[in-house]
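User: Can you recover a sequence for this backbone? Please restate the input before giving your answer.

Assistant: Of course. Working from this structure:
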């Protein structure tokens, strides 16, 4: 018997969450899947500890996982990063340290250091394939060890211990 649209979407969402190779629940952010939202794939609401994923009907579980990982990157950044760590991140990524970390509220973040952090976090978790940051290119194999030292060690499980190289 074929799955109904709602059941199929739920299977896809669960499959996407299963692809996230670290204990994201420890961040205490709720992840919710909602209908598509024009201009956005996902958003993080720090004050509410909420991540919204605007799942499009044709998104694969892998694509949703990348959106989730990107938003979890924002949650990690907001929870654990300091100004000093952010400056080290920008240095490691070749980003001008005078660049403001955040853009405007609810703006696309592809050209901000915060967006680069989130995209690189997703890249380190899931490998290449969907990197959309524009302030710096995808991390090189040479950069990855230094970048990993700037992430909270408690979230680097055995599944994320060996980065997937481009």
């Amino acid at each position: 018997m074929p799955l109904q649209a709602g059941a199929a979407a739920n299977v896809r969402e669960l499959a996407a969450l299963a692809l996230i190779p670290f204990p994201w629940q420890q961040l205490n952010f709720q992840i919710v899947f909602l209908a598509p939202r024009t201009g956005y794939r996902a958003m993080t609401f720090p004050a509410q500890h909420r991540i919204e994923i605007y799942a499009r009907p044709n998104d694969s579980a892998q694509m949703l996982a990348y959106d989730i990982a990107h938003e979890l990157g924002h949650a990690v950044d907001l929870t654990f990063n300091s100004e000093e760590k952010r400056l080290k991140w920008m240095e490691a990524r070749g980003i001008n340290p005078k660049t403001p970390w955040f853009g405007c509220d609810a703006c696309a973040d592809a050209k901000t250091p915060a967006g680069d952090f989130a995209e690189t976090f997703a890249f380190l978790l899931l490998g290449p394939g969907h990197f959309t940051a524009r302030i710096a290119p995808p991390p090189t194999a040479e950069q990855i060890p230094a970048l990993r030292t700037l992430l909270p060690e408690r979230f680097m499980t055995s599944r994320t211990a060996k980065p997937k190289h481009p």
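That completes the design. DSSP finds five helices and three strands in the chain.
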